[in-house]
Amino acid sequence: MQTDQIIIHVDMDAFYASVEVRDDPALRGKPLIIGSLPTERGVVATASYEARPYGVHSGMNIKEAYRLCPHGIYKHPDFDKYRKVSAQLHEIWNTYASAAEYIALDEAYLDVTEQAVDLDGARRIAHLIKQRTLDEVGLTCSVGVAYSKTAAKTASEEKKPDGYFEIPTQQDFVDLIIDRKVRVLYTVGERTAAKLNRIGIYTVRDIQNREEDVIRQLGKQGVWITQLARGIDDRKVVAYRPEDAKSLSREITFQEDVDNYQLLDDVLLLLALSVDNRAKRHGLHGKGVTLKLTYADMKNITRSRLLNSTDSPAVIYQETSRLLEQVNHDPVRLVGAGIYNLSPDEGRQMVLDDYMEETSEERQRVIDEGLDRLQARYGLDFAGNLDKIFKGETLHRTVEYMRKHFPQNS
Question: Helix, strand, or coil here: 37?
Fold first, then answer.
């Protein structure tokens, strides 16, 4: 095996669904769809392997999933539970890697070059990861060993579920994928594949034979794709750090379109609190706020404002509220609030307002008055329970309750 780097890609098998089956064995062997319910708006988060033969897959509109599999079992995701399981997985995987790059709760690239030394060592590590994941967490995973990140991810997908595969060299990778459709390559999604298909490029072999046409059609992305088609990928495993993120946001999709902008403003207060809570957990603050809306006709807009700092939920709320006043007040399907230009709190230069006690008190007053308004308008009492609102499912339930119970005379 090429020893410049040895990379393992670990991918859990139908993660959300598998966790639910582990915790409720009565679900085993049944088509289980995690995401929205068929009566709601939304998409499939993941589907068990029993649901996939019906054509159900992640990202599919939930109505289409129900049309294909009406007898399936539909459940909302429990992200708090999944995060706890993910933390267990990371603890196991970190044992074997000098660097771990987590792509999602259930997926990671592991640099095992030093620990493995050679292919035999990497193979031992891979099987240890699979066995410990099963023994200690009760779940199966698929593992790929390869010389590059792209090859490792391709390998982990070869034998799913509960699979193992290795691609030792660049030539092994090319031999494996040469006659497969272009979407086998990293970064080639549905739209990119359609662009290539329009000029008669359908397989990896076509890319190799018509590199200039690919680059002419796709520009810089085309250069990258032609390299991948020849197995060239020297990207390193880079450990993810929250402070490296460019933005943080929370969004809510309503089950029915909302044309009441006072309700949207109330929802922004909860989104601001949630975004601020997440930022503080990671020791971050932003220097700008964003408002995102998806209208009923599926038109998306984003509005932003650059600030000195967004280290208070009051600031996030007030600024997104101002942005909301400036947009067209058409019916809305989705609303989101976020912060960007993130940096660590530690060592940041404090602005004059940070020294002024009355500013801090004023910001707290904005939040307190906002929560009092929500209590009066909807009968919601957040005293002692505010932390629960930060959980995704609880936040969605709360907002839906607000939508249904907005006073008509407000």
Answer: coil
Q: What does pTM read for this prediction?
A: 0.71
Q: Domains plus CATH for the chain?
A: 15-79 (3.40.1170.60), 178-229 (1.10.150.20), 242-404 (3.30.1490.100)
- The DSSP secondary-structure symbol of 43 reads B
- Cα–Cα distances (Å) from 96 to 116, 128, 157, 250, 258, in that order, read 9, 9, 21, 33, 49
Strand-strand pairing, 300-306 and 288-295? antiparallel
Inter-residue contact 288 to 306 (CB < 8 Å): yes
* Cβ count within 10 A of residue 165: 20
Length, in residues, of the chain: 410
27 three-class SS? helix
Question: Using CA atoms, how far apart are residues 93 and 129, in angstroms rounded to an integer?
Answer: 7
Query: What secondary structure does DSSP assign to 249-311, as a single string?
Result: EEEEEEEEEE--HHHHHHHHHHHHHHHHHHHHHTTEE-SEEEEEEEETT--EEEEEEE-S---
Q: How far is CA 6 from the centre of its chain?
A: 26
Report pLDDT digits (tens) over 83-138.
899 999 999 999 899 999 998 889 999 999 989 999 999 999 999 999 999 999 99
Pairing of strands 73-75, 99-104: unpaired
Judge whether residue 392 has pLDDT over 80.
no
285 pLDDT more than 70: yes
Question: CB of 243 within 8 A of CB of 344?
Answer: yes
Which run of H or E residues covers position 71? none
Q: Is 376 exposed, middle or buried (0-12, 13-18, 19+ CB in 10 A)?
A: exposed
Q: Which of 254, 234, 122 is nearest to 170 (CA)?
A: 234
Q: CA–CA distance from 386 to each of 46, 262, 336, 380, 389 (Å)?
A: 29, 21, 19, 11, 6
398 sits in the region (left: phi over 0; alpha: psi -120 to 50; else beta) called: alpha
pLDDT tens sequence across 304-336:
998 877 778 999 999 999 999 999 999 999 999
Q: Active-site residues: which are they?
A: 107
DSSP 353-388: GGG-HHHHHHHHHHHHHHHHHHHHHH----TTTGGG
The H-assigned helical ranges of 30-139 are 62-68, 79-94, 113-116, 119-132
Q: Give the pLDDT confidence of 37-55 residue by residue, as tens digits.
A: 999 888 899 999 999 999 9
Of 36, 77, 80, the residue nearest 400 (C-alpha): 36
In the three-class reduction of DSSP (H, G, I as helix; E, B as strand; rest coil), residue 243 is classed as helix
